[in-house]
Amino acid sequence: MPEGSFxxxxxxxxxxxSPATFQAMMNELLRDLINMGxxxxxxxxxxxxxxxxxxxxxxxxxxxxxxxxxNLYVKLEKCK
Length: 80
Hints:
Blueprint: H1 18-29, H2 31-35, E1 39-42, E2 45-48, H3 56-69
Antiparallel strand pairs: 1-2
């Protein structure tokens, strides 16, 4: 745009402070995994970490399941 880049300051359906609201939701959804040190979440970035490959796929499946249950999704092309 000629005037510069603009970002919304409120969520489009009326809530304000959307990043903090979304972060709180993600923290609540994954609280037990975060507390165990297996998952780290910062807004829309998640890191799933295990010390060995054993159990990693199951942990990723659990995270995806919780997201799906709450009508959230991930874009596969953004996942590594």
